[in-house]
Amino acid sequence: MAKRIAVMTTGGDACGMNSAIRSVVRTAISQGIDVYGVEEGLHGLLNNRLIPMDLSSVGGIINRGGTILKTVRSKDFHDKSIRSTAYLNLEAAKIDGIVSIGGDGSRKGMYTITKETGIPSVFVPASIDNDVSGTDITIGFDTAVNVALDAVDKIRDTAASHERIFIVEVMGREHGFLALEVGLTGGAEIILIPELKEEMNVEKMANLLNSGIKRGKKSSIIVMAEGVGPSADLADKIEKATGMETRLTVLGYIQRGGTPTAYSRKLGLVFGYEAVMALKGLKRGESRMTAISSGSVKIHDTKDFVNRQKKIDMKLYKMNSVFSL
Ligand code: F6P
Question: What is the CATH number of the domain that holds 174?
Answer without folding.
Answer: 3.40.50.460
